[in-house]
Write a structure and sequence with these properties.
mainly alpha, 3 helices, about 75% helix, about 0% strand
Length: about 90
């Protein structure tokens, strides 16, 4: 279970980082999910098949997926606002 703690530590560091741009955060979160897929063979469509030993891994996986979705929505919002400003200025 040490791997799960490493994933969680990296995930939280990415979220807390003020230096990383949204796109880089998304890229890093996707990399973590990919590594978790490979190591734990987690597939969100098959969660009910996993026993409680994998509960922490599944919970973290879904937490990261949610954070990634929020990151993408923030990025889309920012790009939309930039587009509005550029349209207004021209």
């Amino acid at each position: 279970m040490g791997n799960i703690q490493d994933f969680r530590k990296n995930y939280l560091a990415i979220l807390k980082s003020k230096k990383l741009k949204h796109s880089k955060k998304s890229e890093l979160l996707i990399a973590i999910l990919s590594q978790m897929d490979q190591i734990f063979e987690i597939r969100t469509g098959e969660i009910e098949k996993y026993n409680t030993d994998n509960y922490d891994a599944i919970t973290l996986y879904l937490e990261i997926k949610g954070a990634l979705r929020i990151q993408n929505e923030k990025e889309e919002y920012i790009e939309g606002e930039k587009s509005k400003v550029n349209h207004f200025l021209h």
